[in-house]
Amino acid sequence: MKMDHSLPSEYSTEQNRLKIFGFWIFLGAEIALFATLFATYFTLVNRTGNGPSGHDIFELTPVLIETIVLLTSSFTIGLAINAMRLNNKKAMMGFLVITLLLGLGFLGVEIFEFTHYVEIGAGLTVSAFTSGLLTLLGTHGIHVTLGFFWDL
Amino acid sequence: MKEYFSRFAVPHSEPMIVMSQIAIVVVCIAIVAGVTYFKKWGYLWKEWLTTVDHKKIGIMYILSALLMLFRGGADALLMRAQTSMPANGLLDGQHYNEIFTTHGVVMILFMAMPFVIGLMNVVIPLQIGARDVAFPRLNALSFWLFFFGAMLFNISFVVGGSPDAGWTAYFPLASNDFSTSVGMNYYAIAIQIAGIGTLMTGINFITTILKMRAPGMKLMKMPMFTWSILITNVIIVFAFPVLTVALALMTMDRLFGTQFFTMANGGMDMLWANLFWVWGHPEVYIVVLPAFGIYSEIISTFARRNLYGYKSMVYSMVAISALSFLVWAHHFYTMGHGVMVNGIFSVTTMAIAVPTGVKMFNWLLTLYKGKIEFKVPMLWAMAFIPIFLIGGVTGVMLAMASADYQYHNTMFLVAHFHYVLIPGTVFAVLAGFTYWWPKIFGFSLSEKIGKWSFWFIAISFNVTFFPMFITGLNGQARRMYTYSESTGFGPLNFLSFIGAIGMAIGFALIVYNIYWSTRYAPRHVTEDPWNARSLEWATHSPVPAYNFAITPTVESTQAFWDAKEEGKELFRGKYEPIHMPSNSGLPFIMSVIFFVFGFSMVFGMWIPAIISALGIFACMAYRSFEKDHGYHISVEEIMETEKKCEVLSHENGPLTAK
Asked: pTM above the 0.80 mark?
């Protein structure tokens, strides 16, 4: 297999370069996917039927925690890749473990949030608004879960 | 026990469906028995079910598409037969609803798209001088997901009931309240599975075309078919996620009681119409743009002229692809948006006629002063231009929102989109199929039978669909299973029925042509039967597993033509071992599990659904840890294969037929 050492290690073979490029296109498709979900959510946001509105149910503390946790995990996985490029296996594994823990933390808070929504009467089937909200969040949650298992 | 199985019964059973159930079982037994009797299981598994070769995957796509063409065609014949006379009793309303629904879905998603994808699989790597696609195994997965998605959709009419809310599946009609059978579950889940495969195809071919072209083939030196496929796949990648979401929301509404498209609790039925057509209109261009590419290749080959206006061809396709995302609301002008919205969508819709017109003139100017040779592929292309023009002009008529209130939901619309899609896609794939057949198999299809089928289809097409323009303007609504004699629609509908029979004969002749030519056509007459221009003709026919022994070097848009006319060296360098991907059973197995998963979801059988979902994840996990570096074809083996191919072609004349 031909190796090109002038590039970062994940780009060193032709097949890897193709895979990375393909993944960028996949991310393009993912943007379209989430854009559609967001469009759906914003179309339905005021259509609450007999259920609660966003104003009634949103709490900022878990949202803040989730945001900080996720952004930190993006940073630590970046550090892991940097460690990989420097051929530092130990540091890479360390950062990956931290990333995974942060991912788990996020999922934990999200599961808590979901059960809370169901408890206060904002379950999936209550209104178009709750369907849209929980599907959007749930799809993201599935992405984090899949990413977590793929990372393992 | 009986209660458990009663869910699989067809709700509106009638003799025709019982006969199909029996026929399907008999055919399945016959296939299994036949393969066992001829001891072909090993061959089937090793050469086809596990293959990652883009050429074989392409052939399987095309075969499945032909199969689906006949399924959709049978639906079409039944519809025309039912409406051939006023107050006809061949089908009842429910059965008619099911048939026009499956006709639409099958023809668009399981015939037109896989036919196009099949041709691109066979041709694109050859046309850009590559060894295979970027991700061969993903390609196999794409095919098998499409195949099992299509099969899942097709069993609906014998197990549990067909979808019956039209191929557009508008809510609230498609909701549990109004579509009570599992039919619409089939719709949501089968199309989802096939759609995932299509999205992967999109990613795969964009990567292939952008990253794997032969040295020297700059973007603006790609053949026009490659350009059309690149743009098509960009549309796929941005349009299909919208369908994925729409179908997922539909599934959740039907299976889990969410409120997206409901009539109460804030649900919004129009959201479905919008999401569907945000995907649906680009989808039209997904099947039409490759056709433009095929025609560009064929017209330039058989007019013996370089394609006129190369750059404007490319820019017009880019313009069409951008506009395709900006016109979706024209599918429902009458469903309550204001003057402003209708006005804007009218303008964007009419704007599409401009780049399409540019392409029309380019083709005409390519023909101008050309030495035109009317071989079968060229006949299709020549019929395309005037017929598609009628489709386009009636499209501009429909684009005018205020006038559309008159045509909306009439047979005029049905005539319009058949005038666009049949010459725009069906003629094109048949032309491409005839054109590239000798490349795939090493012999040509019979010109004589090909011409018969061409004339049958081209004439019968107009006999079938032109009357609909008239009955439509006179007020005949589409999707109505019957009408009274006093409407006066009878004679023209009968004429349509006669045309439909003519088309059926034409399509049967195509199958007969395949049979006849496979048995009797002369083999290995030449590697380049059409005196063509692009790279796919520079290698042997049938193409060796590795495509090109030496990667070609390209200097213009018609590299092979230059090699023939100006003696430019295409293959510079020497033989080197070639790296090949190994076969894998994983895509097939994973798609079978997807089928089981889909089937369980359709009937809300949660335990098998969860088990098969875990199976899918297990396959993905296995793939992540699998070490597969492929294998190498040695220089000696390449030389041997090349020699064999050359002996065959020398026995039958020189490489190029001037």
From this structure: yes
